[in-house]
Amino acid sequence: MNTHTPITDADLHAYVDGALEPARRNEVEQWLTSNPEAAATVRRYQEMNRELRALYDPVLAEPLPPRLHVRSRRLPWAAAAAGVACMAIGVVLGWTLKPEPELLFTHSIEQQLVRPAAFSHRIYSAEKIHPVEVRADQEQHLVQWLSRRLNTDLTAPNLSAQGYVLVGGRLLPSTDRMAAQFMYENPRGVRVTLYLRRGAWENSESGFRYFESADANTFYWVDGPFGYALSGNISRAELLALSEAAYHSLAP
């Protein structure tokens, strides 16, 4: 009889936190060797933990603020005072150790923009007959349709200088909103896709970030409320050059 218990997200978090029993830890480690995407997720969790420790471990070493010291001459019930002080310490540390906005921002972008973009690239870039809903010979209709559905004025970036021409595009569901995907192809048949959607981000910095997954490599950036993710199974340098070209083509 098969008694193997499936590995869950809770197991991965417990693994990262060192909270698994040895037997279960061994099971998770063996499972991760054959699941590279999950292993990459675990590495990101570990990196987040390292960043949090680097930011907040010094706080744990700070002396207790004088206002939280228990003074027996003023508080006759020492045990009750100690309990109140411990509670106050817990509140202070709980507030102090909350995740940095930057880490929460990165996690939100990854879940709502980058992973869906990479997965959509893997699914549709392999299609021979129906890679897109609307082909490039109807580009004006495609852009107008997607603009209307995403409630914004869109542009299909021009990547011809980099050797990639527009194949077409499609409308896609995202985690909580609609998304658009534009597909491009070079003379060798290599395809890249630009995935974009609106989010509750309102970011004023448009720096590129890089993400690797089993589905595709992705450069992504956020400009105001819109997120953009360019995905492809090509080198990091070529993907960056295409991302820069797309960004400049989209700039007003």
Residue stretches low in confidence (pLDDT < 50, at least 5 long) are 95-104
In the CATH scheme, the class of the largest domain would be Alpha Beta
Secondary structure class reads alpha+beta
List the domain count as a whole number: 2
Oligomeric state of the chains in view: single chain
Strand and helix order: HHHHHEHEEEEEH
CATH architecture of the largest domain: 2-Layer Sandwich
Number-wise, the strands total 6
The CATH superfamily name of the largest domain is: MucB/RseB, C-terminal domain
Protein traits:
Phosphorylase Kinase, domain 1, 46% helix, alpha+beta, 252 residues, 2 domains
What report would you give on this structure?
The protein is of the alpha+beta class and 252 residues long. The chain has two domains: 9-96, no CATH class; 101-250, MucB/RseB, C-terminal domain (Phosphorylase Kinase, domain 1, 2-Layer Sandwich). 46% of the residues lie in helices and 21% in strands. The protein has seven helices and six strands, in the order αααααβαβββββα. The chain has helices spanning 9-16, 22-33, 36-60, 78-96, 101-125, 139-150, 236-250; strands at 134-135, 165-173, 178-185, 191-203, 209-212, 217-232. A six-stranded antiparallel β-sheet has the order 1-2-3-4-6-5, sandwiched between helices. Helix 1 packs across helix 3. The longest helix has 25 residues, at 36-60. The chain is globular and about 65 Å long. Residues 95-104 have low confidence and may be disordered.
